[in-house]
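Bug #77: duplicate submission created two jobs. Keeping one. Sequence:
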Amino acid sequence: MSVFLYLCSVKSKVRQHIIEIASNLFYSNGYNSTGINEIISEAGIAKATLYNHFKSKEAICLAYLQYKNAVFTNDIKEFCDKKPQGKERVLAIFDFLEAFFKEKDFNGCWCIKTVSEIPKDNTIIRKEIQSQKNQLIHFIAELITDNIPSYTQEEIDTLSKQLYLLYESAVAESHLHQDNWPIMQAKKLSEKII
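Kept job's structure:
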């Protein structure tokens, strides 16, 4: 391995380590409550190392959001793909949410938590979060298309947004109530509309 490739590999590992540490802190404690010095301390790095990888806290936040979304997207797709084809595979998004809720570190939606903490004029972070939410709507639409072929495109567009709203409210309300009943009720409503 060349020295250049080795250095790139090390830099990539350090960057990923920073993202994972910041992700845990932002998700657990909140974006505004987590300071740069706390990230540096938890990551066990020098301040210069952090700024060599990220120019600002906002840049770390974007990396955090992208990291959480990549993991989420991969996990929910894998989970749903294991379910039998048909309505059950579409409704599996709620089964996935229930499994996520049962994890010890469940703390609601990282996107909604973050957007609630940023200034209204922070369009960079807001656009990233909007993009991720639109990806989720698109994923639900794909599930419907692939598993319930009787719907028209207009019906799929409407239904995917309705299921998305039920899913998102189930995330927020299960976090608020610290109970899974909102997930179960959202799934029951979804069964009725599909």
